[in-house]
Amino acid sequence: MNECYDYDCHGGGCTFRVKREVVEESNDIFMNDRFTVRCDMSIFTAPYVLVPLPDILQHLRNLLSGEGTDVTFQVGGKTFTAHRCVLAAQSAVFKAELFGPMKEGTAKTVIRIDDMEAKVFKLLLGFMYSDSVPEIEEEDDAMWKHLLVAADRYDFMRLRLICEQKLCTYIGLSTVATILSLAEQHHCRGLKNACLDFLSNPANLQQVVSDDGFDHLTSSCPSVLKEIIARLASLMLDK
Prior knowledge:
- By secondary structure, the chain is mainly alpha-helical.
- It has 2 domains: 56-170, Potassium Channel Kv1.1, Chain A (2-Layer Sandwich), CATH 3.30.710.10; 171-239, Serine Threonine Protein Phosphatase 5, Tetratricopeptide repeat (Alpha Horseshoe), CATH 1.25.40.
- The protein contains 12 helices and 3 strands.
- A 3-stranded mixed sheet has the order 2-1-3.
- Helix 3 (84-90) packs across helix 4 and helix 5 (118-130) crosses helix 6 (141-153).
- The chain is flat, with a radius of gyration of 30 Å.
- The two termini are 59 Å apart.
């Protein structure tokens, strides 16, 4: 018997049918006027005790409601409260700022951050309590750029890599120069290589060179221009 028909049966039983024409047209179902039916059954029993999945991240997110906070930040005209221990555990920079020699002082409970937008700090704070990709409502490359700068400033390697990965999807003729400049300034090797690969296409490079952003790139990061030329030369030699 070479033909098999599979049926999934759940519950107390099942019914299955095979069309007559299928049987008549097949020479392999019947052998000596007989056919074989094979039934495979799996029996599952529920365990006596079900252990839930870890939910510590949910508990950390709940802390953002403000209970037990012991440090306050003023950013862009808005106030954010947090827990020193959580911040110190996530960031070596915050640990030094809150507990190390460069700490603000036990009497000072409000820390001002003047060079960051409030919505960027809110995303940064949310990441510290959830370790998950931030949800950006109006997603664009500008917000991911700001978040990358903040992640680099406070030494959040995972968040910085997330921002790099996101920005790779925004690389295009109108954005590659500014993204490459950002990658060079903040030592984002993966993002930088993605930009250089894009510019290694002579057609892309020709259009980007005429853009004002490329002038800024060559003036602020002249070493990048040398790398672009080196890549183009390598491609020409390979041909």
